[in-house]
Each structure stands twice: as structure tokens, then as C-alpha cells.
Amino acid sequence: MSHDEILSKVAEFAASAYHYDGGITVQTTFEELGKGSMKMIALTSMIENELDAEVPIREVMTMKTVGELVERVADEME
């Protein structure tokens, strides 16, 4: 799966988990999305179930942008 495809999927999952209507890019911050640990759990669950990439929630909580998460998911999928 290409980096752009991973971004597209992660953006789709983030929009669903955070009920976010705006465009999500690699520069979108979790602060903009609204943070929230339950939303992050939903996001990481979608990533694990749909992309078969496990990124621990405690690790995601230290990330500032969606781009950081996309990079981590890409690493996990290699």
C-alpha cells in the first residue's frame, strides 16, 4: 500500500472517529481534531482492524499530527 493510500485510509478513519468534517492532511493536528482518548482508541482500533497495523494508544497520544501517525502505520505495515 502506498503512502498516499495509507494517508487516505487514516484520514477516513480519523474523520469517522472524531466526527470531523474538514479536510485531513498530514499536517492536521490531533488538537484540531479535538483529541479525546476514546476517539484515539476508536482510531487505533480502525487502523488495527482495517490495515492490520498495531500502533499502541500511548504512542499515538504522544503524536502531534496525522502525518506522524501515517508514518508510524507505514512502518508497521512494512
TrEMBL record:
Report the superkingdom from the record. Bacteria
PROSITE patterns named among the record's database cross-references: CARRIER (PS50075)
Q: What sequence ranges are listed for the domain Carrier?
A: 1-77
- Which SUPFAM superfamilies does the protein's record reference? ACP-like (SSF47336)
The record's listing under InterPro entries reads: ACP-like_sf, PP-bd_ACP
Report the Pfam families cross-referenced here: PP-binding
Secretion signal: which residues? Answer: none
The name this protein goes by in its record: Acyl carrier protein
Please give the organism.
Answer: Thermophilibacter immobilis
